[in-house]
Amino acid sequence: VLVTAIADSKKPNEFVKSNSNEVVAFNYYDHHYFSEKEMNEWISAYEKLEGEKIILTTEKDAARIKLHKEFLKKHGEKIFVLPVEVKILFDEEKLFDKLIFDFVSKAKGE
After folding, report:
1. φ, ψ (nearest 5 deg) of residue 57
2. Using one digit for the tens of pLDDT, what is the confidence trace for 75-99?
3. In DSSP terms, which residues pair with 82 in a beta bridge?
4. SS3 call for 80
5. Strand (E) positions, 28-103?
6. Whole-angstrom distance, CA of residue 65 vs CA of residue 36
7. I need a labelling partner for 57 at 20 to 30 A (CA). Which of 12, 42, 93, 105 fits?
8. In terms of Cα–Cα distance, which of 20, 26, 18, 19 is closest to 2?
9. What digits encode the pLDDT tens for the residues 36-69?
10. Are the CB atoms for 34 and 72 separated by under 8 Å?
11. Which of 108, 11, 13, 2 is nearest to 49 (CA)?
């Protein structure tokens, strides 16, 4: 079971589908806050699957799912997390690092 609430869920969906026999995907709009009703839907889908199965989400979405930690503990479901990778476009990592360094230095009064 894949749960995403990100701007573009295409890559996680493709990744999971390429590595799984069966995928039940729950894709929500970006920054969606999950409800216990929705989590019950994930658990229900999970329970219907046979064989090896997991509930998987992105690192970004896991931060909002953690708000329901007690609910999930009660149901005994573990949720696995795909890490988020940040990439700077156009090979401008050094420029980005400099901008951050300059900002922090200015904020510190250096």
Report:
1. -145, 175
2. 888 899 988 888 888 888 899 999 9
3. 58
4. strand
5. 55-58, 79-82
6. 10
7. 93
8. 26
9. 999 999 999 999 999 889 999 999 999 999 999 8
10. no
11. 2
